[in-house]
């Protein structure tokens, strides 16, 4: 298990003075990336051999979003490697061990020279090791885009949205999706699937709607093929 210690800053809160949904996802992603750095398998190291880890799915359960100024810890660990995929849990809690949020995530190993996923190198598996999966609902990592979503906006992918892989950053999809939630929306769960990487100067269609009591925000191309599909379950 790898742990980071953090605190809710003003730049990360919403109108209710609670840490934003996107900031929780970012804190978890940052914890995973620091884990990689500290075992010597960081992004720059992998780039030298044309390798990278890219996230393909999230399932996050929110128990309580902490308020401005609160301290919190994020723990992460890998629990399975198979083929091209690595599976990683997260636990966000107070220093007193009150559970704030927990998550499952799936990542795939990528060959940047070929532009395709590739089998995980043994050094990666040995570097991270595996631990027991967290006790949670492991629902399908596929997020089905409901029929009848309505186009409400467009997003132009500019340089500020890119990461070091020259794709739109994982966290930026979440930040953009959260912007289309109602101001009083309180999520109990968040699920997301990344289908296709958006690149510099792409234009994404923003489509939203409700289905079975859940709110969906999808980013698609002009043929309605999704880049990213997110599902928010209200409290």
Characteristics of this structure?
alpha+beta
Query: What structural category characterises the helix and strand content?
Result: alpha+beta
Taking all Cα atoms into account, the compactness measure Rg is: 17 Å
Straight-line distance between termini: 29 Å
Note the run of SSEs as H and E.
EHHEEEEEHEHEEEE
Give a written overview of the molecule:
- The chain is 17% helix and 40% strand.
- The protein is α+β, with helices and mostly antiparallel strands.
- Strand 4 and strand 5 form a beta hairpin.
Write a brief structural summary:
With 235 residues, this protein is α+β, with helices and mostly antiparallel strands.
Q: Topology, pairings included?
A:
Elements: E1 2-7, H1 21-38, H2 43-47, E2 51-62, E3 71-82, E4 85-93, E5 99-111, E6 116-117, H3 122-128, E7 150-156, H4 170-178, E8 187-194, E9 203-211, E10 214-220, E11 226-234
Antiparallel strand pairs: 1-3, 2-5, 2-8, 3-4, 4-5, 5-6, 7-9, 8-11, 9-10, 10-11
